[in-house]
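Build the 3D complex.
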Amino acid sequence: MPPHSEAGQRIVPLPVIPAHEGGRAALTCRYRCGDACFHQAPNTSGNPYLGDVIAKALSRRSLLRAGSVVSLGAVGMAAAATSAAATPAGEADLTLGRGRQPKGLQFEPVAPNKLDQVVVAPGYEQAVVVRWGDPVLPGAPAFNPGRQTAAAQAAQFGYNCDYLAVLDLPGEPRRVVMVANHEYTDEVLMFAGYNAANPTREQVEIAWAAHGMSVLVLAEDHDSGRLTPVTRHRLNRRITATTPHLFTGPAAGSKLLKTSADPTGTRVLGTLNNCGGGTTPWGTVLSGEENFNQYFGNADLVTDPTVKAQLARYGLRGLASERKWERFDKRFDVSQEPNETNRHGWIVEIDPFDPDFVPRKRTALGRFKHEAAEPRLTRDGRVVLYMGDDERFDYFYKYVSRDRVKKGNSPAARKHNLTLLDEGTLYVAQFTGDSPAAEIDGSGKLPSDGEFDGRGKWIPLASGNRSFVPGMSAEEVYVFTRLAADKVGATKMDRPEDVEPHPQTGTVYVALTNNSDRGAAGKAGPDEANPRTRNRHGQVMEVMESHNDAAATSFTWRLFLVCGDPADPSTYFAGFPKDKVSPVSCPDNLAFDRYGNLWIATDGNALGSNDGLFGVAVSGRDRGQVKQFLTVPIGAETCGPIISEKRVMVAVQHPGEVDGASVEKPVSVWPDGPGNLTRPSVVSVWRSRGNCRIGEDD
Ligand code: FEO
Ligand code: CA
Ligand code: CA
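Done.
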């Protein structure tokens, strides 16, 4: 089968997209992660990678047993999501199915394509719910790109929506509250005539206001999955790069967090580069600060060798930053305020039901390039967060709270639960393979036992004020978590992105998106958990905690998917026939539907197609049968998937972000068509026939 058959699709002629990390455009590298892939990966530690560790034999049967126990529940989360004309569905290019498909996955897959549309499976409709610049707060002006101001932007939906959470609104039937975060800004796609060498103060302040988060109440349509913003609701809120936040937990007040503007080390303005997130069992929303380093200039002027090493480990380098914010606020000038960088790279918790809640940066969860934080409960009712550090050769972490979650919504329960992320233990993962190292040759060829699999352990880093890392205080462990993990033998991974515990089985799914440096000269080579050199397509891992208890300090693991073109011999789809799956590349955000199927959003498809959303069964005879449900417009990334009974929601991030594109030379005009700026937006998808459930035949 051709890797990306486009039979039946209208192909839009487009500029060639060069292969950067995954299939990402250079424009994405520039604005999203500060050209991270053009620089040496910041992890230069001599820390072992999995291939250095002596493999210990473990039978596949025991692994399967370990993963088969039913867990304590994860998070119950209502789903939700709408506008714009429906687009034609892509034609299926695959002969799928061995009889009836599992519930939740009964749809014809969408073929890979490069259309400037959201393409959904046949029989589905889609519409935009909210776009960049749409009003969020009462009195916000309508979007007017030629007359945009920072004040308007601070009351409107921000740029580049990524994580989505949707929660029921007690007492308000047919309404839900959505939290979206706004990762970064694409100035050349936002401002006509943008001069990157000399941005104006107004442009910079608009960008500050376009970062952060939005809380927005949505009204559900009675007969469809359409959602409409309720723009006058008291819960609607914008959080930006200048909104006051609190530090909490063991590093709050640390000298490492003090600046001239905040001599207490407890208060900070703004949240930056919010990527994935999570929703807690007590109804708050978590958001990960990811590539924060790119906003800071003049790191190269720092001379103290210790500080320089700390900055380098977080990718802080160079002189002028891409956006030149250091010219407009000295806190972004590392040479003037070196500790300001330590105040970003955290998990932020907000309460969407309290518009006055001061967002909290939870220091007990460590500081790195946080992708997301997804919860699960231990057998005795404490909360665990699984967290990826999205950088080549960086690590996979978890946090286990000291105290149990209190049930219910009483003020006392709420107050207690808001302390859970301040007292606990932070761990980093070390993986061991069970096959001989010689069988892991970097080609992706399965070892003789038939699986990439093995076991692992959680290495404690710090608990409260106690450090487990030689030579580092607890405060240092929390603020320089990467350096702490380097010291204890954590396993270098292929960019850990989203992590999602299965709501029924408890197995934890980890998206490892790609790592084009794996096996490069001087870099860590392939190992059983990261088995391909120059890994452009990524893999999805299953982690089974010992005794299926999220509090365990050991686990077993196996690769569920090794992504790419099914015709590529290095790919693996849990053993499912490869001529009957959709090609999938660069897994990023993960979600489960109510039947326990895994849904995978991709970022940076390196197979030449637009990014998409895929569903796949994780158990039963169809385990591994990946099916593409939708694709997003040219240049965009698929983010924040939510799969509910009635609708699928995704955030369409950075449409049109293709090399050479600008306001004057757009590559995408989605969603509003020619003559309009492309606008990152949230989309809802539903069955065309009213009241039909997602992924279920009639
Ligand atoms: Fe913002 Fe790791 O993607
Ligand atoms: Ca093996
Ligand atoms: Ca992501």
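The chain has nine helices and 31 strands.
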